[in-house]
Amino acid sequence: MSLPQPVRGTHDLLPEDFRRHAHVRDTARDIAARFGYAEMATPIFEFTEVFARTMGETSDVVSKEMYSFDSRGGESITLRPEYTAGICRSFISNGLQQNVPFKVFANGPMFRYERPQKGRQRQFHQIDLECIGSPEAKADVEVIAVAASILNSLGVMGSCTLQINTLGDAESRQAYRAALVEYFGAHEEQLSEDSKNRLTRNPLRILDSKDKGDQVLVKDAPVFTDYLNDFSTEFFAEVLEGLDALGISYELNRRLVRGLDYYTHTAFEFVTTALGAQGAVIAGGRYDGLIETLGGKPTPGIGWAGGIERLALLAENIPDVIRPIAIIPVGDAAVQPATKLAYELRNQRISIELAFKGNVGKRMKRANKLNARAAILIGEDELAKNACMLRDLDAGTQEEIQISDLGKALEQLK
RNA sequence: GCGGAUGUAGCUCAGUUGGUUAGAGCGCUAGACUGUGACUCUGGAGGUCGCGGGUUCGAUCCCCGUCAUUCGCCCCA
Q: Are strands A123-132 and A251-252 parallel, antiparallel or unpaired?
């Protein structure tokens, strides 16, 4: 087939797909609003350094997955691979430090040059929640609660578990990282190829290796809890208490490590086994050093992102399409009056189907295919009486009624 | 980026151990039914068998390449 194809890893959202997509987005937006998170948006691209500096030069996303290009002005521009960095940049650009806590919801397309798989695309969409300026553990709890509430509402909580861990503050994390590098460095020859790379890029990841040889070494590796300072330990305990108090169940996963450099303290993922290797549906954590990295005043933050496509694959209870009422003119003389009636009813917020052509049989078939609730037939006979034939397509019954009574009659059809 | 599988009509799939015009169901469309849908019946349209090259008298089938999808790894939403 030489038909034009979409670029690899991109997909069209046809109406049927879009309905699921929109349901996920709208559900998230509504729930976020209830928790006090207002919607905002930032540009789809940023200066490359916004992502490079915050996510870490050695992270996979920055080192091999960014869609970067030089603008005509010679600046390096990157299509956003995630939302957090852009929102934090916006927080700084707009001088919003007096608006804390800055609680926002956002959604939109993201771009990562990865090998496509089910639930993994090069252009995909995320919902995103950020709470900037709150150092309190209560913020962590709230942010996670929003996510839990959304997953519940989408009907996917049953197939998800919340995994949670702490990465500690910068001091704790650096101490632990150094200890791991020392330990694994001494056994470098026994490490898998992947883990040799991890040693310099993100040694914490070695703990999560699926390689059997690595796992043997991991058994005797330094334990994170030994390196957490008191503050970090207490902070995490407070987060867990908060979740307990809300009845949000979680699984402590000491090997949960996020791939981006900016995370501190709380890290969490809502994971499912229903999507193969792509288990994370909503994931995030605290990023207390990020805004400073971008050149802002030290400001704590916590947030998460969720993959809309992944959630759409799992979501239940997608609302049905609105059932229209079909208006069917009978005979040429009825076409204009029918069109006018359709216009008036549509202006009264009623969903009307009016075909451009076809005899009564064709139009009835079309009405049926569109799952119309009822059909309004208007011919010369009815026109003369200011009436119409209202046919209940579910019951298969019909009756002649005055056009002036149509509004009421349609109300009752619901 | 690495390894495996797959690619025939709009959709789901048959098929040919290489041989004249490549099939089914669903869908679409026309009619039976020129003021009445869902059921039924009868026609019709739609495919250079993913794309390119090779082997062969001959390829949708065999070989190579390529593109896309998919599963796993890496990583992530």
A: unpaired
